[in-house]
Every structure is written in C-alpha cells, then in structure tokens.
Amino acid sequence: VERTDSWKDIEIYVYExxxxxxxxxxxxxxxxxKVESSFxxxxxxVADCVGLMQLDPYYQVDRMMAQDATNLFDPHDNIxxxxxxxxxxxxxxxxxxxxxxxxxxADNADKECYQDSMQVYIDKxxxxxxxxxxxxxxxxxxxxxxx
Length: 147
Hints:
Elements: H1 7-18, H2 26-37, H3 61-66, H4 75-93, H5 95-104, H6 115-135, H7 137-146
C-alpha cells in the first residue's frame, strides 16, 4: 500500500464512500482525517489507532468484516470503515457529540477532565470543515455533476 499524504490522493474515493452514507459529508471526512493523521495513511498512535482516520483495529473488527476491509493502513479500507463508523455516531449523537465520541471514545465524552482538550479537537474539526468548504467544495460539486 502506497503512503498517502494528501487530500488529492484520496478525494474521489471519499466522495464515492460518503455518497453511500446518510449523514457523513466529504467536509467532515476531510476534517477528521486532517485532525487525526494529517492525511498520513501510515499513521500509528500511542492508543494503537491506525491510518488516515485513526481507527482501532480491535474495536472495529466487526465493522471491518462488514466493509470487507482487511488492512486499516490501506487508505480505501480505512476510509470505508472510518466513514461508516462516523455515520453510525452521527445517527446516534448528532455532529458535535459524534466528533467528541470519535476523538475521545464514548466512555470519555462526558468526562469533565477532558472537556478542554475535546473542545480544542472539536474546534479543529470545524475549522477544517470550513477549510474544505473554501478549497474543495467546488471539486465535489463538479464530481456530483459528472456522475
């Protein structure tokens, strides 16, 4: 699997994936990937999360099987599983709480001791969603027209 370090390398695939989901848009996928890994498909965290969307392979094993994903370092597998996971969180929690749970886990989302760090994380996601709107929304609109 080739290392991915740019939105351009994965942009069209993200569009294909999010178009099949009911709550995740490309701006959110972009923002999560930028915050979580800076688009480094080979990223690995101290919490054992991997890839573009920083997924825990142990926690996501059922979702990986359902998505026919075998390698979370593979950008395509990671995006499919990560967007599907975020879609589930969005249905359950709505955007802001979904962002908290995605970044900090369901057990930590309500803990007062993490609120300042979570707010920094949430602010980054919103800032990068705006960045996507400014720089990439036109690409998505062209993609949709060409479908």
